[in-house]
C-alpha cells in the first residue's frame, strides 16, 4: 500500500504572468507583472512604470500558454495529473481593477481552461492573486496600501466564485502572502510602487514598512472575506492560504543564534499563516510593530472578520533552507532569496539556492503541529539549465534526483502523522522566472523551446523527468 492516501492530488503548478503571454489580448489590462523587465543570472529585474519600446518584458510572451493551454493540459493528463494549480490573471477579468462589470472574454477563457482540465479528470486548483495586481489600482491608490482594495478584490472574487461554481473546488487567495514582509514582496504581491516616475531596480524599490504591513492587514481582511463569501456561494468550496515556507535553523547552538532564528521564523514563517489559520494577530507581533514604529490601522469589526474567515487548508512553496546568526559579520546567503546564512552541510543549485530535502519534512511537521490543517506542497522544484542532446533527448537526472529526495521526505512526514493532501511541483512546464525573467532557469517536466535571446519556436518537448513523474503518479509515489 502507498504511504500517500487514495486520491492524493499529484500535479503541477504555474502562474498566469509566467506562462500565459497574450498580455494585452481579449481586453486584458496591464498588471504590475507586465511592467517588470527581464534580467540575467545574478542581475535584478527592473520596474518601468511606463512601458518602454525595445525592452524585454517576460510576461508579454511568456510561453504562449494562453493560446496553447489545450496542448499543455493534454501533456499534463498524459503524465497523469490529478490536479493543476494555475492562477487567474486578475486583469483579464477586471482590466483596470475598478470596473463594475467583468470582462466576458476573460471569464470565457478560464471557462475553457477549467473545462479542459475536467475533461481529463484534473482538479483545478486556482490561485486568485499570483503576483500581478492590476497596475491601474497601483496608479489609483498605490494598491493594497489603500483599504479600497478590499472591495475591488471582493468584486473580482464574486465574479469568479459565481462563474465557476460547480466546476472548481479548491481556491487559494494570495500566492506567497508572507513575501510581503520583505520590500520585494510589497511590489510583487501587493503592487505597492512608491516611485511612479522612474525605473526602479526590482530588489531595491523605495520601501516604507508601515505601508507594507498596513497592506498586509488589508490582504488579511480580503482573504477572510473571500473565504466567508466562497462558503456562502458554494458550501463545497475549499479556500486555502499559500505561503513561502523558508525552513530556517540557528547557525550554532549559541542561544543568541537560537533567538535570532526564532525571531526570523515568527516574522517570515508564522505571522501571516497565524492570522489566516488562527484568525487573529499573534501576540509576538506587538513588540515587532512597536519597535519598528508600525501602527496597524484597524476599523471596528476587523478582528471579527479575521476570526470568521479562517482558511480550510494551508499550502506552501518550499525550495530551500537557510541559517540565522546573531553575528553581524556572518557570511550572508545572497543566493537564498530570503536571506540568512549558508548552511555548510548543504549543496547548492546553479542559482545558489541551497538544497535541503529534510527541511521539507521538518516544515510539514512544523506547520501541521502548529495548525492541524490539511497541507499541500504547491511549489517545489529545481531551476536548472537543461540541454537538448543530439538525439533530441533531455536528460535532467539532476531534477529527478531533487524531486525524488523531496518526495521521500514527504513520505516520512506522512508517516510522522501529517495530513498531506497534494503535491504540485513548480513550473511543471518551463516558464519564465519570477526572480530574473529568464527562460534559461528551467523547472519543467516539459521543455519549451524558447530562449533568452528571443529565438525559439515554443515547441514542447518531453524531458526524462516527464516519464519519471508519470510513473510516480501511476504508483501513487511508490516508484521513485
From TrEMBL:
GO process terms (BP): carbohydrate catabolic process
Alphabetic keyword roster: Glycosidase, Hydrolase
GO-annotated cellular components: cytosol
Top-level taxon: Bacteria
Alphabetized Gene3D superfamilies for the sequence: Glycosidases (3.20.20.80)
Annotated Pfam families: Glyco_hydro_1 (PF00232)
GO molecular function, one term: beta-glucosidase activity
Sequence similarity: Belongs to the glycosyl hydrolase 1 family.
Name of the protein: 6-phospho-beta-glucosidase
Source organism of this protein record: Anaerostipes butyraticus
Amino acid at each position: 500500500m502507498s504511504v500517500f492516501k487514495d486520491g492524493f492530488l499529484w500535479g503541477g503548478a504555474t502562474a498566469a504572468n509566467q506562462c500565459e503571454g497574450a498580455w494585452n489580448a481579449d481586453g486584458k489590462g496591464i498588471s504590475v507583472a507586465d511592467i517588470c523587465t527581464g534580467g540575467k543570472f545574478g542581475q535584478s529585474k527592473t520596474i518601468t512604470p511606463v512601458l518602454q519600446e525595445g525592452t524585454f518584458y517576460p510576461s508579454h510572451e511568456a510561453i504562449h500558454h494562453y493560446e496553447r493551454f489545450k496542448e499543455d493540459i493534454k501533456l499534463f493528463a498524459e503524465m497523469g495529473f490529478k490536479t493543476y494549480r494555475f492562477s487567474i490573471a486578475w486583469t483579464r477579468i477586471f482590466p483596470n481593477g475598478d470596473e463594475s462589470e467583468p470582462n466576458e472574454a476573460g471569464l470565457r477563457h478560464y471557462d475553457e481552461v477549467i473545462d479542459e482540465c475536467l475533461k481529463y479528470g484534473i482538479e483545478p486548483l486556482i490561485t486568485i492573486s499570483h503576483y500581478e495586481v492590476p497596475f491601474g489600482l497601483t496608479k489609483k491608490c498605490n494598491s493594497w496600501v489603500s483599504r479600497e482594495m478590499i472591495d475591488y478584490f471582493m468584486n473580482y472574487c464574486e465574479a469568479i466564485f459565481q462563474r465557476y461554481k460547480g466546476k472548481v473546488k479548491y481556491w487559494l487567495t494570495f500566492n506567497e502572502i508572507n513575501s510581503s514582509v520583505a520590500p520585494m514582496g510589497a511590489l510583487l504581491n501587493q503592487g505597492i510602487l512608491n516611485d511612479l516616475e522612474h525605473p526602479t531596480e526590482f530588489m531595491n524599490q523605495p520601501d516604507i514598512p508601515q505601508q507594507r504591513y498596513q497592506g498586509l492587514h488589508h490582504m488579511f481582511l480580503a482573504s477572510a472575506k473571500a473565504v466567508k463569501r466562497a462558503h456562502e456561494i458554494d458550501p463545497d468550496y475549499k479556500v486555502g492560504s499559500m505561503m513561502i515556507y523558508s525552513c530556517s535553523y540557528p547557525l550554532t547552538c549559541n542561544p543568541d543564534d537560537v533567538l535570532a532564528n526564532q525571531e526570523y521564523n515568527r516574522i517570515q514563517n508564522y505571522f501571516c499563516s497565524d492570522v489566516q489559520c488562527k484568525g487573529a494577530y499573534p501576540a509576538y507581533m506587538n513588540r515587532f510593530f512597536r519597535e519598528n514604529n508600525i501602527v496597524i490601522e484597524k476599523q471596528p469589526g476587523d478582528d471579527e472578520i479575521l476570526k470568521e474567515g479562517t482558511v480550510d487548508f494551508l499550502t506552501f512553496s518550499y525550495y530551500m533552507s537557510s541559517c540565522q546568526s546573531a553575528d553581524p559579520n556572518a557570511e550572508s546567503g545572497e543566493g537564498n532569496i530570503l536571506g540568512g546564512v549558508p548552511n555548510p552541510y548543504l549543496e547548492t543549485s546553479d542559482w545558489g539556492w541551497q538544497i535541503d530535502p529534510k527541511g521539507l519534512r521538518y516544515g510539514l511537521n512544523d506547520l501541521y503541529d502548529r495548525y492541524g490543517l490539511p497541507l499541500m506542497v504547491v511549489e517545489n522544484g529545481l531551476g536548472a539549465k537543461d540541454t537538448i542532446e543530439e538525439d533530441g533527448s533531455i536528460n535532467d537526472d539532476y531534477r529527478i534526483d531533487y524531486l525524488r529526495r523531496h518526495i521521500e521526505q514527504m513520505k516520512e512526514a506522512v508517516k510522522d502523522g501529517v495530513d498531506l493532501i497534494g503535491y504540485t511541483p513548480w513550473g511543471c512546464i518551463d516558464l519564465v522566472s519570477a526572480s530574473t525573467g529568464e527562460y534559461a532557469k528551467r523547472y519543467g517536466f516539459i521543455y519549451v523551446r524558447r530562449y533568452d535571446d528571443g529565438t525559439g519556436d515554443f515547441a514542447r518537448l518531453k524531458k526524462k523527468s516527464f516519464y519519471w513523474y508519470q510513473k510516480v503518479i501511476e504508483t501513487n509515489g511508490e516508484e521513485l
